Amino acid sequence: MRLCALELKDFRNIASARLVPASQATLVIGPNGQGKTNLLEALYVLTTLRPLRASRFSELVRFGQPRARIEGRFELAGAERTIALDITAEGRAASVDGKRAQSLTDYFGGLSVVAFTPDDLAVIKGPPEGRRRLLDRAVFNRFPGHLDASRIYLRTLKQRNHLLRTGAARALVEAFDQALVQAGAEVIARRLALIAEMSDRLATSFEAIAPGDGGCALRYAPFSGALKTSELSLIAETFRETLNERIERDLERGFTSIGPHSDDVELRIGGRAARTFASQGQQRAVILAFKIAELENLRARIGVPPLLLLDDVSSELDPARNRFLMDYLRNASLQCLLTTTDERLVASAAMGQDTRAFFVERGQFRERAMGEAEEGP
Ligand SMILES: Nc1ncnc2c1ncn2[C@@H]1O[C@H](COP(=O)(O)OP(=O)(O)OP(=O)(O)O)[C@@H](O)[C@H]1O
Ligand SMILES: [Mg+2]
To answer: Atom 13 in ligand 1: which residue has the minimum CA distance?
Structure first.
């Protein structure tokens, strides 16, 4: 896929903008608080219908305005498509080529985006939720059906938990188990499938980024720890058995204690749990390796690389790792947008390629000739 043009109206602090990105690196340069992340957020929301930062959709509308609009022109499998999203306090409406999108599959067909933000760097040591989100974002990209299964699972879980919390009879609670098990098993199976695809790539890219650190491994850490299969029907069977084993406890505690909503993703460096032992630099290396592995896996499976969004990542990486990332971007033949407060950190990603640079100030974007001084002529 390729992003050919992006148009924004009243999206956060961006009143109006129209950008034509380069086919390779596009730099977005500006001081703090000017709208760099907002631009990437608009692209992320448009292409995934999921927020980049934890927020309500209505927060994306510029203060005092009734609606925000994000419109992107993409080249997808050789055809041009215009995808647009309107956001109001009431909700959002997605369209493809001016017509309301009939289904999510219709809307997403061919879109894929990998985002890397400083928030990602905290997930290694943080609670399991962050690692599940990291994995799920990658799973959504690879298997679009993951979105539906996850939604059905969470909706059913909410209903079951409501019954548990309000002291409903056991039979009533168990009436939800069939739907919970079915959607839950699908969620787990897709997570396992992606991990199986990505593991070797992750090990390879980690070795390139941090040679001599003992290697990196990725493993799914499911509810009972007893999941020894990646086959859907067997996952469902194990999940159902574990739910049955736990029902007394769940009735007592008032919530569903196990399932894909409580599973974890384990990353190991040199055979040790990164969550406990990884240094700051190693955490960054793991996440960088994860994003590159995700991207290269998509390129290999789908045939085209996803759009890469890097939000001020270079300032978080040490010079050697930043150099690794810049070398990768220069040689990887993919389209990326990079934000930065300091152009020097990312300039080498844009050397000798089809690149563009924009300067952003108070939500306004101005294209700059490459290498032009920040103050402008
Ligand atoms: N709904 C909104 N309406 C108008 N302005 C908003 C809205 N939401 C956020 N902002 C403003 O957007 C600005 C932040 O933009 P953004 O997060 O893109 O900054 P940034 O350039 O990425 O900065 P940094 O370098 O600090 O990350 C802030 O000034 C904030 O007040
Ligand atoms: Mg920012």
So the answer is: 33
